[in-house]
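#structure-requests
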Amino acid sequence: MGRRYQGFDNITWLIGGDRNPEQALESVNALVAGMRESDHRHLLTAHCAPENSAAEIYGNEGWLDFNSTYFPLTPINSFIHCCCETITVRL
């Protein structure tokens, strides 16, 4: 995949999918290493189980470029997301 998409702009690789790697950590790292052999320019993050940050799970693996954490849209999280969103402005 790294070789196939290395020339494309606007790609961020998202490793995983709604779960933590547990016994598959070695396989995940091998996948990332294979991608990095051809693609050094695109950022990598991970999509872990709900309420688990990528930094907690993959932070020591050496390939995580930025953290990612999500919370499922329970009724209270939906309310907070829709009605109480905080906007940050950089000056």
